[in-house]
Amino acid sequence: MKNVSWRNLPTYQKGEHLKMKWCKSIQNLVAFFSVSLVSALAYAQPQPESGYNLPRDVSLDGHRIDWLINITMVFCIILFVIMCIWMLWAIFLHGKNHKADYDTGDSKHHILIACTISALIFFVVDGNLFYNSVVDLNEAFWNFEKAEGPDAVQIEVNGRQWVWDARYKGADGKFNTADDIVTRNDIRVPINTPIGMQLTSVDVIHSFFLPNLRVKSDAIPGDVNRIWFQATDTGDFEIVCVQHCGAAHYKMRGILTIMPENEYKAWHDEASRRAKLAFDPEDKSAQWGWAWEEL
Amino acid sequence: MDLQPIHHEPTTFVKKYLFTTDHKVIAKQFLWAGLLFLLWGGLLAMMIRWQWAYPGEKVPVIGDLFLKESGGAITPDLYPKLFTNHGLIMIFWAITPMLIGAFGNYCIPLMIGARDMAFPLLNMLSFWVFVLSQIMVGASFFFDNGAAAAAWISYPPMSGNIGTPGHGQTMMMAAIFVTGVATIMGGINYVTTVIRFRAPGMTWMRLPLTVWGLWLTSVLNVLFVPVLGSAGLLLILDRMFGTQFFVAGANATGTGGDPILFQHLFWIFGHPEVYILILPAWGIVGDVISFFSRKPAYWYKGTVIALIAVTVLSAVVYGHHMFMTGINPLLGQSFMILTLVISIPAEVLFLNWLHTMWKGSIRLTVPMIFALGTVFVFGLGGLTGIFLGTISTDIYLHDTMYVVGHFHYTMAAATFLGTFCAIYFWFPKMFGRKMNPMLGKLHFWFSFIFITLVFGGQLVVGYAGQPRWFFDPYQYTFLQHLQDANIKTSWAAFALLFGQVFFVINFFKSMFAGEEAGDNPWEVGTLEWTIPSPPPVHNFDPIPTVYHGPHEYAHPGVLEKMGKDWLGQDEAFDGIELSASTDEKVAQGA
Fold this sequence. Notes:
The complex is a heterodimer.
Chain A: H1 24-30, H2 35-40, H3 62-93, H4 108-141, E1 153-160, E2 163-168, E3 181-184, E4 186-190, E5 194-201, E6 206-210, E7 215-219, E8 225-230, E9 235-241, E10 253-259, H5 261-278
Parallel strand pairs in A: 1-5, 4-10
Antiparallel strand pairs in A: 1-2, 2-3, 5-8, 6-7, 6-9, 9-10
Helix pairs in contact in A: 3-4
Chain B: H1 13-18, H2 23-53, H3 62-66, H4 79-112, H5 120-140, H6 167-196, H7 209-241, H8 259-293, H9 300-314, H10 329-341, H11 343-357, H12 366-389, H13 391-397, H14 401-431, H15 437-463, H16 483-513, H17 556-562, H18 581-589
């Protein structure tokens, strides 16, 4: 059999930005098509990364994680190097020809030193990690109130094998109504705006990961989890499922598009208007949304 | 002494080599069973590594033999079966039988001066139940839809009928249950034997660290494997009998159950399991470093306290595996601080190992370099773990290859090198012959260098964002530049496999043609080296009396009067510990 290169399978076609200034007649024509057409026209072109660093950070709070990882990395490298030097030095200095000391290390003096060193490392390295992590969670990552205000954009995300469905409130400001926008593997958000998401799944457990925004949470059937973030740059970024969810787990890839605020608003209004036209009240399976869960 | 009668050596082949109650033969049985499955799990790992380096391309050799239908390539359907079975086989059917089954069985009675385990028949049953579970694992590959494919963590609903239909997954869950039964039988046996069968004078503070590690492991096994068993049983009920303990979402009827419940049960077992696997290796390393530094183990009591502290803490940190499940923030922070606290006893352990070496007279024998290699890789594994113990850093690193690299350093690299340290160290006792040190050193350098590179490569790509469980990471634009790193890492893995050839040659050659070992080739003082190699069926006759701890090296008085730098635990020497009145009472009264 011919070798199949899975890498070269087509994923997303390069496209152009939707032009929102189309004349009214064309708009009416297009309106007959379902919202899925909006998705199909998606313009997704995530940029490749380079080197072995953390992926480019485009979020308001991601730098907190990056700093904490990197500072702890420095501590760990220092500790590890000390350990290695100690071992090598001992082997070098105190080899076969060295006469061993009879030292059981039981003296109070020795115990005090061992405990002091351990406590010192704990309070500096682990203490720094713990303190900053708690602060970060309370101020940023798990401070979900930030995405509850009137300016925030709220999105319901539903994972299923092997798709991320996203649902936006329409003009009526309510979830699970006729003018909801529903997209498939295609989430669009405005820049510089708090974005709140509620995640669930219908089948197995998925995990919603935005590497460039340092955001992650499991999507669990029968449960609603929250995340929030705020983007600081426009562009296309990848949405990754990071919980093993079946044979095509690796294909559960979505695109997060961060747009300028006015562009997002134009898209949102237009998509909501079309969604209302295309709404089919008989199609119960399409009405999977839920009333936004308050904090 | 009526607890420990002297049995005659069995005469029939079946009683001597198959259905034996002799702990030394059972240990070898576990060793063979474990080595076989280590090879199997290792080959599965090589296929995964091939896939990450050259996705979709024909696998050399294995592809021709087993993957004819897909033209030799790994398919997206096969791939989850590979990593699922790699993980489960390595944990339950390779490391567990080798470190705990083989060396637990071999070392505990010999090192504490007992004639056999407390329950020899239960010991035999434990092994044969274990074999049954291995057969079940093998059988799980032959059902429709193939073997288990829900990852080693087996989270429902993925591990339910919705995610993995077919009997392969059910069979695997049943096999885990059965091997759990075998582990509990062994655990009860080890715990009882150490409590009841210590030789006179062998107080708790005179136990070799190996025995401490194995004993604490067995305590954890007895406490927590039943939890895994219950989780597995509930999952089997869900799969086979229509219950809904773990079913939720669109597939639930009525109110359904809760998939998170399984995660709680799994990790209540799963986190102690990490320590179950590493504690014996820590114990062995602690002993071996002292033996070959020819110096007493530094602050022995501190090491023991640290091992106990880790054992206790291991039971109350499991929530850090569930930080991304929408855990209650207060609960999350509690698990966070408890997790970080483990670094204190771990630091005490490392400091004691390093202090033991310092000012010693270090002999770089094959077991010693494996022990030092274990310290090195466990250092890497431990340090990379603290990033995963705090929630904010875990938000980014959770479920990436970074996690895979971290836990492989601790659970795979450290236990792998620790197991080989044990094999090289006790081989002369087990088979009466020495292993070839030259081949041993070749094996060490291949294993040590490449195991470090393999899991280091995983840390690097994980830090750059590559998730685990990916059939083809390069579907993602932000991961495409990592293929070069993955190719290099994969070749390190293949070299690691190649290096094992030296072990296989050495193992079989030495078994039949190695140099005669004598009673005590390493000149160490623990009880197993006071009897012939290999030991007679009843081990000790009479049962020895113990006068001091296991690490009496470089004592100036001993050197002067006896002309050697070590002292057997059964050798009395004025000035070493004899003043302790309680110890004397134990020695005389028992």
